[in-house]
Design goal:
GO terms for molecular function: dihydrolipoyl dehydrogenase (NADH) activity. With 465 residues, the protein is an alpha/beta fold. It has helices spanning 16-27, 42-47, 49-70, 85-109, 166-169, 186-197, 217-230, 320-334, 363-368, 384-388, 421-429, 434-438, 449-458; strands at residues 4-12, 32-36, 113-116, 118-123, 126-130, 135-145, 149-151, 163-164, 178-182, 201-206, 233-236, 239-243, 249-253, 259-263, 266-269, 273-275, 289-290, 293-294, 307-309, 348-350, 355-360, 373-379, 395-401, 407-414. Bound molecules: flavin-adenine dinucleotide and nicotinamide-adenine-dinucleotide (NAD). Flavin-adenine dinucleotide binds next to helix 1, strand 2, helix 2, helix 3 and strand 4.
Length: 465
């Protein structure tokens, strides 16, 4: 055993939660060590947000080229395109390395020490790290748990062989002929769409009676319609029983008990992720739980003094930007600042084709919260920019209080709407009213004009519909 190191803040996990906390702590002069078992950047940069968005983009470009090889309404024609999947994956890996290298450089620039290895918690102030060259003990005043999450297994269908998680799906060596996706949520639909566009026959099996059950049904309809146009089969309201005896089909059961076998060369299991709370000594701290996750308060404190938790290990919503915002806050708290985690909204984007973006309350959520609200939508079919992009599916919707017009939620579905997340979140965080957005000059021609028009429509005087 080498010497024991001491620090003020010890962060376990170098994902978006942990690395942002460490950078901010470094900026504030708090002595900080981050322990990371893999590459810095966590799930998000290495095997999550970034690689999936790279593949989504590549698949979209490929699909577009294939459309042009048929008959393009734009007057473009090309020879039948081919895709070299190894080069696509190498391009994606290049982006990942640039970003993970960037995180390492930022940690260094801010005086944060990165210790590579797997941490084991000994007590609330002491951690032992298996660095591969012996164990190292680190003692701290503040322990920040940012160990993230891992794919949820299905007892009847363990990972291995044909059954892969998003991690393997993000580094394909070949595109399977027939892919069965279990789970019609974020990962299932984002990556299911990628594989379909890259040529696989894709079937999505979802336990609920519709895809993306956490989003409101109006938003998911254009996505379901686009999946149908692409030829993705949806098996809704089905229970997965496991692989068949030959190992070449997935057995599913409908509500009546009838069983079907879905032929599969590969199975992507994407039924959610679980907080990584086991196998590294955390159990000994006996921290309070909220289901599988660590229970935290509005300052990300766990039930043990000076032990904090952020990001996926602290449960839903498991989103990178939430983890980052929590990490920044904890660093500032450790540095002695007064902070609370009380965002007006945590936006969410599903990068399907078309994309979905939400921030704040949907009409049904506003109603459930006892708010008397009005809601208005503006369709992209009436937006000039959407027409020039040949992408008129979808709409922007605003939800606002009827009495004072305070905006409480935004939703949109359509091509490229992920970029509206900034406008949505800013308006909610700044307490904008319908009149504020309606009275703001929006550049023409942009998709953002649909945001202004939705507000105008809620006020009863939309201009372009
Ligand atoms: P993680 O990013 O999981 O990082 C935790 C880190 O801790 C890991 O690097 C791990 O190696 C390390 N670690 C764990 N245990 C130990 C230990 N004992 N010792 C040392 N190191 C340890 N979110 C979005 O907001 N937008 C998206 O588009 C998006 N796309 C996604 C796509 C996919 C395919 C997946 C899987 C996830 C996606 N997510 C997305 C979710 C996002 O990746 C997570 O919410 C985010 O990474 C959580 O950050 P975190 O810091 O809490 O944990
Ligand atoms: P998810 O929760 O988004 O979707 C899982 C889906 O699987 C749900 O629709 C659920 O009803 C279904 N399901 C559960 N058990 C099932 C079963 N036995 N058979 C069939 N269907 C079943 O989870 P995910 O897609 O695995 O993604 C995990 C998390 O990663 C997400 O919750 C999200 O927080 C994060 N993520 C975010 C993004 C993004 O922000 N764009 C992208 C990917 C992942």
């Amino acid at each position: 055993m080498s010497e024991t190191r001491t620090t003020t803040l010890l962060v376990i996990g170098g994902g978006p939660g942990g690395y942002v906390a460490a950078i901010r702590a470094g900026q504030l002069g708090v002595p900080t060590i981050v322990v990371e078992g893999r590459q810095p950047g966590g799930t998000c940069l290495n095997i999550g947000c970034i690689p999936s968005k790279a593949l989504i983009h590549a698949a979209q470009e490929y699909e577009r080229a294939r459309e042009y090889a048929g008959a393009s309404p734009l007057g473009i024609s090309v020879q039948a395109p081919v895709i070299d999947i190894a080069r696509t994956v190498a391009w994606k890996d290049g982006i990942v390395s640039r970003l993970t290298g960037g995180v390492e450089a930022l940690l260094k620039k801010n005086g944060v020490q990165l210790v590579r290895g797997w941490a084991r918690v000994l007590d609330g102030k002491t951690v032992e790290v298996d660095t591969g060259q012996g164990a190292q003990r680190i003692q701290c005043e503040h322990l920040l748990l940012a160990a993230g999450s891992e794919p949820m297994p299905l007892p009847s269908m363990p990972f291995g062989g044909k059954v892969i998680s998003s991690t393997e799906a993000l580094s394909p060596t070949a595109i399977p002929g027939r892919l069965v996706v279990v789970g019609g949520g974020y990962i299932g639909l984002e990556l299911g769409t990628v594989y379909r566009k890259l040529g696989a026959e894709v079937t999505v099996v979802e336990a609920q009676d519709r895809i993306l059950p956490t989003y409101d049904a109006e938003l998911t309809k254009p996505v379901a319609a686009a999946l149908a146009r692409m030829g993705v089969q949806l098996c809704l309201g089905r229970k997965v029983l496991g692989m068949n005896a030959a190992g070449d089909a997935v057995r599913v059961q409908d509500a009546s008990g009838a069983e079907t076998a879905l032929p599969a060369d590969q199975v992507l299991l994407a039924i959610g992720r679980r907080p990584r709370t086991q196998g590294w000594g955390l159990e000994a701290l006996q921290l309070d739980r909220a289901g599988n996750a660590l229970r935290i308060d509005d300052q990300c404190r766990t039930s043990m003094r000076n032990v904090w938790a952020i990001g996926d290990i602290a449960g839903e919503p498991m989103l990178a930007h939430r983890a980052m915002a929590q990490g920044e806050m904890v660093a500032e708290l450790v540095a002695g600042q007064r902070r609370r985690f009380a965002p007006a909204a945590i936006p969410a984007v599903c990068f399907t084709d078309p994309e979905i973006v939400t921030a704040g309350l949907a009409p049904s959520q506003a109603q459930a919260a006892g708010l008397d609200c009005l809601a208005a939508a503006f369709p992209f079919a009436a937006n000039g920019r959407a027409m020039t992009l040949d992408a008129t599916d979808g709409f922007v919707r605003v939800v606002a209080r009827r009495d004072n017009h305070l905006i409480v939620g935004w939703q949109a579905v359509g091509r490229g709407v992920s970029e509206l997340a900034a406008a949505f979140s800013q308006s909610l965080e700044m307490g904008a009213r319908l009149e504020d957005v309606a009275g703001t000059i929006h550049a023409h021609p942009t998709l953002g004009e649909a945001v202004q028009e939705a507000a105008l429509r809620a006020l009863g005087h939309a201009l372009h519909i």
